[in-house]
User: Fold these one by one.
Assistant:
Number 1:
Amino acid sequence: MKSPFRKPVLAAQWDRTGLDYVLADWQGGRVTITAAGSIERVAEEGDTPPAPGELLRAELASLGVRHCELLVALGRGSVDVLPLHLPPAGDQELPTLVANQVVRDAGETAESGVIDYVPLDTPEGQSREVFAFAVDGATIDEIATEAKQAGLRPAAVIYRPLASVTLLQRLVPQSRRTMILVTLHDREADLTIVRNGRLLYTRTARLVESNNVGDIAAQLSVEVTRSLAAASLTADGEEQHLYVFGSLEESEQLVQDLSDELSLPASLLDPLRREHVAGSLPADAARLAPLVGLIHGYLERRLPLDFLHPKRPPAPPNYYRRGATYAAAVMALVAAGAYYAWDVRTQAAEQVAALRKSVDDTRTLLEKVQQKQAVVDAIWQWETDNVNWLDELYDLTSRLPGGQEAVVRRLTISPGRAGQPVIELSIQVRDPEVRSRLTDQLRDAFHDVESPGVSEQSASTDYPWQFETRITLRKREPEQYRESAPDETPSGDLAASAPGAAAQ
């Protein structure tokens, strides 16, 4: 038995302030972390910070490593994330559908860059849902430049939160619960939701510039709540569990505070719990979680995506190869007689011509069907989103209390999941009892109302209480608006008392 030689694997991530790396060896089917560290990109006054390639080259030289495979994790600032709802399609058709949709939505970034995607758990034959990720060409060129400066060549480039998910699935295998993963970085946190082992939602949130654990926990609880709402899991009956990457000394109190704030079970995951470590580690090991997950995903060949090797549609069938097969058969039968060989060749040529004609006819028919399908899809989308907004706003205004009791500070209208429009209100009230009364006034057969909570605003004396309300609308016909119309025209007191309110 011979073990094939494999170069060490170096996983790295960087931003304007620093660089993190993990160096690992693959020996006998086991990953060994030989070195890891975090390097600040600090420059003297008047100078530019050192380039990541220079820092990596110097670090590898100090470790005595000459050759290795470079893996790069990109943060949210370098990647465009686009959730897509696509028509029914097979897995082989998805690359083309995703590319066309992203080019239409992202424009120049997608046309000049790289597109890859992660399909959600949607069976074939139904509408497909995917998360598409786009990186512009300048970012890919920058990675190649930094790698060359370090004397390396990039082997894989992945979106950082997905690398954290790979490590989560390794540490918590075969989980059928809804898992909310929090990975902390400098002044930002990657928030990812996984259900039944499949990606459901991902985003990155900026954090307050504070070292107080209570402040960070309070903001993270708000961001987790927003993520659950965006993924339509706020009222999900399925069991939910919160996981946070970190060490016991640094993150135990944060996890406890988050569990109390969200009323969810929470667990602290050490990213190096199951790793064989041969070298020293930096103080903050939590930020290395995406890099550890990236190394395992790369070595085990189960990366969810790779911007250097994005998913491509299968190559079209090679009809010339089929013709060559017939030609070889004809040559094998030459000895049986010139006439027989000529006859077989003629038949093969006619069959190839018929197949080509059939392919051309099918392609022409497919183009016509696709054109008609595009019209049908556009009409269906218009009909789905066709909401009588003037009637909806009129109806909403009639239900709101007067300006002596409440002020609307923000009104946002946006599309929700499954095509249902959503209205989000930020309201300040004089008395917290107005919130309960307003919720009852708004909720009916066409309005689902969610009000997470009310908080006191010490800065306002007239309206000291503030709360958020999310209203999910169901489409109505014009006569249904007339049936539920109020007896009197809205007084407009609320609008007059809140000149600063705006609809976005």
Number 2:
Amino acid sequence: MPERVVIVDDEEGILALLRRVLRAPDREIEVFPSPLPALPAIRQRRPDLVISDLHMPGMPGQEFVRTLRGEFGGGLGIILITAFPALIADADAVADGVGAWLRKPFTDLELLRTTVAEVIEAGRRGGADEVPLERRLAAARAARLRHRANLSRADAMMQSIGDAVLLLDPDGRIHQLNPPAAALFGQKVEECLGRDLSCLPIEPALLQALLDAVATGAATSSRRRVTLARGARVVDVSGVPLVAAGGGAAGAFAVVRDVTAEVRVQELKHHYLGAIAHELRTPLTALQSFAACLARKPVEDGRRDLLLEAMQGQLTRLERQIDKLLLLAEFDRGEAADPAARPAAPFRVAGPVGEAVALCRAGAREKGVTLAAPAIDDALEALGHPDDLRRAVVELAENAVKFTPPGGRIDVVAAAGAGQVEVRVRDTGIGIAGEHHDAIFAGFRQLEDPLTRVHAGAGLGLSLAARMVAVNGGRITVDSAPGSGSTFTVRLPAAPVAVVS
């Protein structure tokens, strides 16, 4: 005699999942959106099992259970499902005659199938069994809990993993998965369970990697890196084969790990190493040429002075690159941002800003760019570290010189704001499109194509400037558009005003 199962739930996805997973040759399944239409069908053709959601329109799940128990006694198996299992006390569930409850969304088909089989069996024994219903259900539940202990622990571990995890059978059907795996496919968990991988909207490369994990056999693990078109993400797909009790293949345990951030870091690292090697090699090559000229006899005094000046400029450039590397290392170690090691204090802004402008004048003059800095009020004070402000303004001014064509102008001004000190570096350069305003402050980023770019640099200056200002409790903003120049504004906390009593 075939088993008859009635499923009552107002979620179409849950109904489809249960119908798909519980389908069997010797089982008839009917589904209903609420208890009210389900009751006449149950009365007309008594089922072996009723699976019902706890919260539904028309009739609460517990009232539905009491109605069924009152009419059919203990020969009807009942399973309650709910997304809020904490709301069901075990004693209430047993008193109402519930054979089991399950949490949704479902993540473990073995748990679902096993529970259904056990409750159906208990219900079929109910009519002839002299043991009271409550005791029988309590004993069955205790046995079921012992039987499912390992599965439950494994499921809890699986749900806590941040990577996408799937348990696949030998035919490529999803036996178990966690929410990150469902999200990877753009689906809900219940839409994936029990379905063939090829029936889900999975990108072809990822689908093939998962199918290969199943097809490798019972003795070979697999690993493949896949680039997804959606979101330009990169994932590592690892498959571990599962062995059946008889020794054959039982499917595979697959883990899909998003390694996009790691890949991007590696790409930035390779870009940075190439860029910084170029930045260090350029002044070294120039120094070698100048030294070779000085080694030749004779060298006119005037030309010697020019060579020595040029050598000094290249040495300064080399020193600046090494200084950036050391500063970057300090940030990565957390030393530059440690307030205990570097307590903030009031300082006059005029000094460090003036020093920064002086350091950049030679480069601006060499390029034919006017660098102007009106006198700064000597009473203007900020809270933080003057060296950080000097370094940040140097980076901003050098960046302005780099991207301002000959004949252009750069102005560096400082003024008091509302509880802040503002230092602006305004240029008449090429400008920056709005969609790139955030990207320019990321480390090792340049907007030019590395193969065709005409401006030197490792793409590190603006990132370091932003970090130096941030550790002082401030920030840098940019106002710019292509062809309209750029204004970078450093905002630092103003020094507290001394109160004279």
Number 3:
Amino acid sequence: MNITPISNYHFNSYKLEQQNKPENTSEKNTEYNQNKKYISYPANYYISFGNNLNISLIEQMQKTKDKKKLIELFRKMPQEIQENCEQLVLRFEKEKLSLEDYIKSCIKQPSLFWQSPDKIESNVWSVVNKFKKEGLSIKDYLSACIKQPSLFRRLPDTIEDNVKDLVKKFKNERLNSKDYLKACVKQPQLFYQSPDTIESNVRNLVKKFENEGLNSKDYLKACIKQPPLFCLYPDTIENNVRNLVKKFENEELNIKDFLRACVKVPSLFGRSPDTIESNVRNLVKKFEKEGLNSKDYLKACVKQPPLFCQSPDTIAEHINIMKFSNINSKSPLENNNFWEKILKYPIKLSFSSLTLLVKNLIIPKMFENTVIPKELKGNSSFVPKLKTYLENHPDNIFELNVKGTDKDIEVLRKCIDELCDGKNNPFTINHIK
């Protein structure tokens, strides 16, 4: 097999030459025309000037999602390629590297098909050993390589330099290698991204919002939680933040408050302003006739930033559950007081439907005429506590007499089924209309 590594210069020259040369269908130039297909791959891949590799085979493998079909196509590859892949997978058998995953990596990075298993194994273990003290595991690094196949071929010394140089640049912000490596595993391109580029992204973004109180230490923490932020252009993030605030200028949302929310939930930095606006306005629209307005709800979102991201339908269900629970309480709150209570403690809106029902309706109704047991009291872990209680009292049965809409009852039944987890259901629901 004749395989030639090519530089960017030679690759571009080869591409230009093929673009300017007319198609030649003569038998003499069949090989030349066949090789034109290889220019679709990025520079620095290998070009095979022979017929040992069928490019259409790789294209078929790229498209197939069926595991068996993928392996069948792989078996049509040259024997040398099959042996390379199988040997590499065998070397990481303990780490559960699958042939299917490695083939997919090779499809993304075709030069891996010919790469020596010894060389790839050496690259992987060298990187892991260089960061052994920082806790980088072979399993995590292999996972990163599968996501970003070029890592299989990257020089370990280069990767080590990238990580250590970046950490050094943020020494004053107390960034450490252990935390940054965790970010790299989640966002594998960070292993080979230029430290200068990453530093520029972070510092330029902070500079854009320094007047609004954003500092490097806080933003760096946000990047560690949400590693793609290291790679996003500062202008893109600035655009997201300022556009979102502008959409709610009539509701008096300001950049400083929204930035604080972004630091708590870093995904907000990269989220589309249109999506966030839609989440907020659609939720408010569902309850505006009952007294909810955008200004008050935005204040709740700033206190509980995940609300910016959550589906309006999900939050609406949580609100309806709280309304349902309020109707069935011994002292129901009036409409205004109900909204005041919810918006004052918006974290409750992010609880699961099951948690809200267990805390606010199911447990109070179970012990409506008696004292709630000590093991069911507290401020957290309501669902696990109740599950344990039911397991310890298998003979107890409970009647829940509740008011509400048919949809409320449907949600209640669904949550009770989830609570019982397929085991005996001790609850009887009496719907009072």
Number 4:
Amino acid sequence: MSKPLRWSALEARLPLQELPAFHRAFLRQHRPELNPDTLPLRRVQQYVSQTLHALAKEGKARRVDEDFELDAEQIPLPYRDL
């Protein structure tokens, strides 16, 4: 099993203009029923936060202070090796 990935570290490694695509890819993986590619960015951000909390409740992520740690399989493939 790979080392858990810190959510804030993943976001920090991406250029700002790529964050919406990363967040939408995350939602496509975990909440495809939302059709994240059609949502306004503000809603995408809200759903990402809700999804991270839900994953923590399910034991698929861990809260670390105000951040989250996730196993690599919880991150969309193109972003796992950042």
